[in-house]
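=== RUN LOG ===
request id: a7f3
mode: sequence -> structure
chains: 1
length: 378
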Amino acid sequence: MQNSNMFKNIGRIAIEMYLLFQHHTTVEILRSVANDHDLFTITGQGWHFVKFLGPAVVVIGPDCRSERNKAHVMAGPTYQGIFPKVATLPPSVQHCIWMLSVPLVYPRLEAVESLAGALQQGKKAVNTSYNILGKVTSSVAGVVGGKEVVQQGFSHVKKAVGKSGVMGNVLNQFGDLDIGEELKDMWTHTSKDLERTYLIRTLQGISQQKGIRMTFFSGDVKACGAGLVHDPTHPSDHKTMYQVITSPIVAAPQGQYLLRMLHNNKALYVPQNGQKSSHEVSDTKEDMMEIFHSDPSGTTREFKKLMGRRNYVAVMAYDPEALAAAGLAPQVPMTPAPGQEGLAKLSLAVDFIVQGDGAFQATTKYGPVIVPHLEYGR
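=== RESULT ===
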């Protein structure tokens, strides 16, 4: 269906409107521009950008939608076109912020994903009790010919994972469990596993070579939080990359059922390039940070890693050495990368501004999450 003439034409018009209203340009104008950093295409499908926020901070916006299908987020040639642009950034660049539509680092929903896969395949009968959140479902026949039973047996899944907490049917018009489609959209889904590892491992190599800290900014999961991939034996080296998650502004926040499932303590690790994730111990661990210890009302929170409230983040670049000289922060010796001599060594401070509810409508600040400057050669 995605490759049909109807959907291709809808996509063509959507791209035209996207370029016009979000970038104030057209394909014809872009093709006549000599500088291909600001907004560029590699395969002719997606449009990407590289924007400088001063000499030390760069924001990279890869198009994570135009080439997306069930097997990948972006096509191989797109990576081969974007990575050299990052690897050849000026020596003054210290922080590279990647704007990815959905988080690269995020807790797994393996129980729901397994359930969605079983229903979608329709090849086996799901005839055992399935316990999610301590609730036992009824036995379920296969998908084929058993839609009513499926809807009855998994009504709590509908409440837990439906958009805005409501889902008209457990099965959508294509015969799939709706949450299954949402999971397939994630970098952490098994269908994107090798691609995700390739992106992380390649950026680790560029980070080490260039002395640039890589950070990911994402949304689209109806919650806010921060995570990271890192080597516990070498804190803050080039393998350390932070994930900032901020959403929603318009959509309804995530419900408590799903937040409970996301707050699991399963240890996750990034495999070596070309290997499927088995979560065996490696040199790169995944973690979500516990930053939400209390609600805007002041009550203690059970779930500290993700918060399902409307929010935004405020980011500030600052010089830790300058603060230390003023007596406001401890002195941290840093080695500049070649070409960075004489420049301030910048870190990023990320604050989460979260909206309250009921009698507590005022916003509450959480943080800051500090993204440290990368010491060259680490």
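=== NOTES ===
Residues 123-146, 160-170 have pLDDT under 50 and may be disordered.
The longest helix spans residues 5-23.
=== END ===
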